[in-house]
Prior knowledge:
The protein is of the alpha/beta class. It has three domains: 2-60 and 496-510 and 533-550, Urease, subunit C, domain 1, CATH 2.30.40; 63-242 and 435-484, no CATH class; 307-412, no CATH class. The radius of gyration is 24 Å and the shape is globular.
Amino acid sequence: MTFDLVIRGGTVIDGTGGPGRTADVAISGGRIVDVGTADDGRIDGGGKREIDADGAVVAPGFVDIHTHYDGQATWDDRLQPSSRHGVTTVVAGNCGVGFAPVRGTDHDLLVELMEGVEDLPGVVLHEGLSWEWESIGDYLDALAGRRYDVDLAGQVCHAPIRVYVMGERGANREPATVDEIAEMGRLAADGIRAGALGFTTSRTLNHRTSRGEPTPTLTAAREELVGIARAIGETGSGVLQVVSDFSIEGEGDTLLEMMRASGRPLSFSLLQTAPGNGYRRKLELLDRACAEGLAMRAQVAARAVGLLVGLQGSLNPLSRCPSYRAVADRPIAEQARRLGAQREQVIAEAREHLPRMSLANVFDLGDPPDYEPMPEDSVDARASRLGVDPVELYVDLLLADDGRALLYVPFLNYFDGNLDAAAELLGHPHTVPGLGDGGAHVGTICDASFPTTLLTHWTRDRQRGTTFELPFVIARQTRGTAEAVGLLDRGLVAPGYKADLNVIDMAALSLDRPRMVHDLPAGGKRLMQDASGYRHTVVSGVETYVDGAPTGELPGRLVRGEQPDRGRAA
Length: 570
């Protein structure tokens, strides 16, 4: 027998959580057709193309369920940085913000919302979005006409629906009437029937428009959320996703009621958002829901959520200094050179103009980047050891590497100076990895590399506490995330499943330092991060990346709705 592709002799870690074994993997027609079961794992027959995976891990492609490629997917065929980190499926439309449904009069409002909530420059969105759609179905059709380096799924976003139905009243967070709730539910259900994977909403004060206004969905009443959820439940499909501060009384009960009314799975974002272990109260909600038989999960992060600051970034600590403003229009290297030539003046200005902040939680990111830095490596602690003013060291670090240096300011999941809280969340039985926000926060955060951190830091490199076995984290990032959103045709290395695969050299797997590129519409900039060690990434049986370099193939497509299990049992 001749197959389209055979991956020979790798250690197959199949996504079930079980131990790895040496086996060949045969692919034809975009699906896995055989995984070697003989004592030596060999498959008889050859492949039109064969990959030698000896010494490497063969794993399912990673499923990233929390991205914001809603805009980028309309103009770009490479959904990077995610696709550079073994990701083969991305789910966009999270946190209730998106671009459909929309009337022509509301384009600016939705751009301002995405710009404020997800740090996507308005000028980029105005230049890049074609607005060739009005309904959710129209938007999905526009995506379906494109080709990508990963599969892409969209979701129904609460804020656009609320504005579409209620107009200015919706944007201003006024209560919805019974008829308006019914209409929002109808539109959400229509979106699910058109192929959206789920419905998402935001309940956090951190989400604001670029004008500082809270997101339209912040205070939506329980009746509105439950009404929309019930309408989605009537389709028999779809998942629910919520980001919330849990500051509204009875918020946990609202989530439970959404699930009971709809019969649909729900996930919510969960991080350590303050010192201490307050996040455990949300874990208790999770346990209570699962004990009731409700399919609730929490999406958790693979490391701290941290800001990247530097001369290139959206957060430039020197931006208010007169010396910097005088050179702000020059290339980065020239900025660093000129500022370095007047170092004492820049330091004096920085003391006056820097935001009043502690430098005890600011670190040199390094190359390769260190995402669990020690407290004694902070700018404050280093300056103390050197006997210099912390601001002086801060300025020197910002000007390093011809101005390309990036400093790391971890906050969520890092209040204790370590990732112990993240470890607890990652290890909980009802959580899945998420929150990487690929396609968003383009000038301040670069967390689409979370999957690589899962494999490197948590199974191999961490020296300060809990670690995990490689089969566990692979299962969480593949089958676990796929099941959380109903994509049951992928996430396992087994016959019948979609041939989305990674061949990984675990000894060589590492993260590169983030870098700034200027490839967005209107010349916009974004942070990009590469990795070494992904020898081959395969989507639908087609190689998309070899040793980190794109092959030029674009087998990725829009995925419409839940996908049935494609294993032998099906």
